[in-house]
Amino acid sequence: MCFMGTETVADRRNSHKSILIGPITMHPKVTGVVIYCMSFAILSGATRPVPGNAPSLPISGSRIIRVSTEPQLQSAMGGLQSGDTILLADGVYNLTSTLYINGRNNVTIRGASGSTNVVLVGMGMDNSTYGNVPFGVWSNGTNTTIAHLTIRETWDNEIIFNQGAQSPLVYCVRLINAGSQFIKSNPTDVTNGIGVNNGTVEYCWFEYTGSPPNDHGSGVGYFNGISAHAARNWIVRGNMFKNLHNPDSAAYLWNPAVLFWRHSVNTVTEQNVFLNVDRAIAYGLDNTTPYFDHAGGVIRNNFVVLLPGFMSAARKASSDGSLIAWNSPGTQIDHNSVLLNSNEFFAVEFRFSTTTNCMARNNLSDAPIHLRDSARATIDSNLVTALPGMFANPASGDLHLLASATNAIDKGVTLLSVTNDIDGDRRPRGASSDIGADEFTANTPPRISNLRLMGTNVLISLTTFPGESYDLLRADDLLGSTWAIVASNIAGAIGGIQLTDRASASVTHRLYRGRLSP
Ligand SMILES: [Ca+2]
Ligand SMILES: [Ca+2]
């Protein structure tokens, strides 16, 4: 029987890599069993999803239609049936028509993996002779999935959902240079709050690589990242919104990157990064309506960064806030990290007398939290004196806490409603929750410090720290074998912990590794 220890080295921001350490010298005298170990090996571990690079969705559908050229793609769209999955081979597809999912349900349009291998290209963001390609993908079907591709350079929306659509999923898609809202969800009946519900936008990347659009008829700079009307129960998670920024001369100076309004309800926006966007998130804008412009919902565990000098002084004068709930009662804005570098007045703003029962807790910012026009909110345990030096790399939008940020680490109140952080790390760790979107971890992975046999039992010792939790995993080989969890969420202790695994006598070799509990 051969046992081997492994060590997990985790990049707390992006990925895990597992590095086998070996050979491990073992000296148990186990009768009748030859013990020997392999030399060094490295295996790539599970990767945490990040914007534009998330684990591949399983390929499913009643028909899988594989295409590798733009004419084949259009042919597949022409013969589209409900349940179809159109699987695009890697390559660039210069669209000759918008992809219309019209009256078809459960349709998937996707690449195989990542977000950059398949690229759908419009006729040019500011090209008014866009012909048959105003949009990228247009759908009024239920359960439309768009995944693992890039859409860029469309005159109008890159993705648009219309009356009849429900439960769309936009997953690991890169949206670049849209001539209007990158993703638009239209209403059926705003007064009665009927629109596209249960949408999910996960691990996508929204960016203007240069200037935003010219005047397409509604004034210069008419865009949002996501604009949804009369939408209920959407989730916006794990996305990057970058450089969604108009010049001072534009008609629209405060476009929210994420906008849910006109009778929208219960939006969850979490674990996103907003880098140099004019306004990050708006739940509601308008209080001249017979309905709440938005109600309920959560904004949590997001990073927002505006780099120094991003806004002119004149622009700042009308800035209000970066995370806003206007005419949006019952909205919780918790555990966000917002570094505005004096470009805007307020990190968070609640506005209008209809905005009641709101919360702002455990936010970490360098700008205040503001109540405007008789809005009411519980404001608790925020730290609004953040400095750039508290964070890992503000220039890239990375507001992970440094170990030196001791005025934020363990200084939050623990909220039952927020059980993880921007990385998906469990909260609280250590003595209490940390203020801001990142729950700090010293990130010292466990090491297998001892491993011995007792009969067919394997006793494994891990180096641990108090306040952290650990998992032990096991595999029978390195190729194709999945890592089974032997033990999970075991509390660390000074001096380490010892765990026991029962092995069958027939097992010839076995691999172990430890990790911080996710
Ligand atoms: Ca903590
Ligand atoms: Ca973290």
Helices, by number, come to 2
End-to-end distance, in Å? 30 Å
Please summarize the sheet with the most strands.
Answer: 20 strands, parallel
Q: What spatial form do the alpha-carbon principal axes imply? A: globular
Quaternary organisation of the protein chains: single chain
| Total count of domains | 3
Query: How many strand units?
Result: 44
Description of the structure:
This protein has 518 residues and is mostly beta strands. Helix content is 3%, strand content 38%. The chain is built from 2 helices and 44 strands. Strand 37 (391-393) and strand 38 form a beta hairpin. The chain is globular, with a radius of gyration of 25 Å. The protein starts with a strand and ends with a strand. Residues 1-46 have low confidence and may be disordered.
Brief digest:
With 518 residues, the protein is mainly β.
Set down the secondary structure blueprint.
Elements: E1 2-4, E2 6-10, E3 15-20, E4 42-47, E5 63-67, H1 70-78, E6 84-88, E7 91-94, E8 99-101, E9 108-110, E10 118-121, E11 137-139, E12 145-154, E13 159-161, E14 169-178, E15 183-185, E16 200-202, E17 205-207, E18 226-229, E19 235-237, E20 240-242, E21 256-261, E22 264-265, E23 268-270, E24 273-275, E25 279-283, E26 294-295, E27 298-300, E28 303-305, H2 313-316, E29 321-326, E30 332-334, E31 337-339, E32 346-351, E33 358-361, E34 364-365, E35 369-372, E36 377-380, E37 391-393, E38 398-401, E39 448-454, E40 457-462, E41 469-475, E42 484-491, E43 497-502, E44 509-516
Parallel strand pairs: 1-44, 5-6, 6-9, 7-10, 8-11, 9-12, 10-12, 11-13, 12-14, 13-15, 14-16, 14-17, 15-18, 16-19, 17-20, 18-21, 19-23, 20-24, 21-25, 22-26, 23-27, 24-28, 25-29, 27-30, 28-31, 29-32, 30-33, 31-34, 32-35, 33-36
Antiparallel strand pairs: 2-3, 3-4, 37-38, 39-40, 40-43, 41-42, 41-44
The chain binds calcium ion (CA) (2 copies).
One calcium ion is lined by residues 409-410, 428-430, 432-434, 439.
